[in-house]
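re: that chain from earlier
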Amino acid sequence: MTVDILLIGGLWLDGSAWDEVVPALEALGHHAVPLTLPGQGDGSTTATLDDQVAAVLAAVDAAPGKPLVVGHSAACTLAWLAADARPDKVAKVALIGGFPTSDGKPYADFFELVDGVMPFPGWEPFEGPDSADLDEDARRSFTAAAIPVPAGVAKGVVHYADQHRSTVPVLLVCPEFTPAQAREWIASGDVPELAAAKQLDLVDIDSGHWPMLTKPVELARLLVEG
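^ sequence. v structure.
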C-alpha cells in the first residue's frame, strides 16, 4: 500500500486517537499512518515543538508520494508547518477543529503547567459544543488516556519560513463551529495563515471537538472526498 494520509492528533493524544478512522480510510482505498509524537506517547516529558515538527517532517519525507497531512486541533499548526517546510512534497493539508497558529506565537500555551507539563485540564473548559457528543464513558476513557504535553511543546514558538505554503491546498473540517463562522474569523483577520491560502475548502461535520472519536467513518469520508 502507498502511504498517502498522515494523521496528527491534538493535545493529550497519541496515535491511538485514530484507531477507528484508519480502518474507515482503508475501506475507502487509502492507507493512513497515525503519528505518535515525541512527548505525546513515547514517554518523554522533555520533548520540544521542534522535536514534534521533526517527527512530522520525517513521516512526510518517508512517504513514497505526496501525502495528505491531517492535523487536529492544536496539531493543525504542525500540519501547516509541514506545508511550510515541504510545500512541494505535501499534496494537501486537512485541518480538523483548529487553525494554524500565527508566526511568532506560542504553539499551545493554553492551560497551566504542572511540573514541566500541561496536563489535561478536565472537562470544564470544553463544556458545550466541544464535548456535547461525548458520553460519560467516553469522557472517562479520554481523561484516563490523556498524555500531559511537555512545556517545551506547549510553549514552543511557531516560525514559518516559506511563503509557498500558501499554495498548498487546505481542507478545513468544521466540527464544533460552522463553516460560516470559520469564514467570518478568517475574513476578520483572526486567522492570517488561512486568509493567505490560495485554495481553501470548508466542510461541516456534526460533532464536537473530537470527531475522530465520535464520527470516525464520516470524518474519514470527508478527508477523502472534501
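The mean pLDDT is 96.
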